[in-house]
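[recover] target loaded
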């Protein structure tokens, strides 16, 4: 009985393998392929990070030396070949600084806008948003700064956004909104110290009082000139 049972078991195994063996083999092959693909992806990501890091270090040297053309070439390579790494976003921040040093504020604004439009992480985008706002203030585009910063969700950048927003409102002579923005800036946790509270308070103190604003508006009115009296032509009398 035992010998017969073993033969039956072997026959059952052969039958099962004939019916399912190809699925088992396919599953093993698929599993090996997936593992190989994952390992290859991991390896390629690590290689990209190493190469991107090396290029970014080169870019920082270009920026430090003020070599604009060389920096643009290096940054272009990072954008094109390592756009999925963090170094692409950091390269844009570095180039924005170099452009501003060279007086090319439009290029600085463009490269920062490119970072905002990219798939960079949220924190680096906040840095870009703040720097773009300051470039726009430098360009006199206060209304665009308001559009860029107003309504941003609360974050570790709230105080710095609010100070820049207050500066824009001052340029637009919207002093009440400027005071509100500055108040938000200095209401952050004092331990964070992301803004200089003393400077922001000085900006608040420099805002004109409502009565002063009215006086300024009145002073800008064109003076009224009394109409001259009609002269009488004595010869006509």
């Amino acid at each position: 009985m035992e010998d017969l049972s073993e033969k039956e078991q072997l026959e059952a195994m052969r039958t099962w393998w004939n019916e399912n063996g190809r699925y088992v083999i396919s599953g093993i092959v698929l599993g090996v392929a997936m593992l190989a693909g994952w390992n290859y992806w991991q390896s390629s990501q690590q290689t990209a990070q190493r190469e991107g890091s090396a290029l970014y270090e080169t870019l920082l040297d270009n920026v430090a030396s003020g070599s604009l053309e060389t920096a643009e070439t290096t940054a272009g390579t990072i954008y094109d070949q390592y756009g999925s790494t963090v170094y692409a976003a950091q390269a844009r921040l570095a180039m924005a600084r170099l452009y501003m040093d060279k007086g090319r504020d439009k290029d600085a604004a463009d490269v920062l806008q490119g970072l905002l439009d990219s798939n960079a992480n949220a924190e680096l985008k906040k840095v870009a948003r703040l720097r773009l706002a300051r470039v726009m203030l430098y360009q006199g585009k206060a209304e665009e700064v308001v559009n860029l910063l107003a309504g941003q969700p609360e974050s570790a950048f709230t105080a710095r956004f609010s100070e820049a927003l207050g500066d824009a409102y001052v340029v637009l002579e919207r002093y009440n909104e400027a005071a509100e923005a500055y108040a938000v800036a200095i209401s952050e946790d004092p331990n964070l110290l992301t803004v200089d509270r003393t400077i922001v308070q000085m900006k608040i103190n420099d805002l004109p009082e409502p009565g002063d604003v009215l006086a300024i508006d009145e002073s800008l009115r064109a003076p009224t000139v009394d109409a001259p009296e009609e002269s009488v032509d004595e010869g006509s009398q």
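[recover] notes: The chain has ten helices and no strands.
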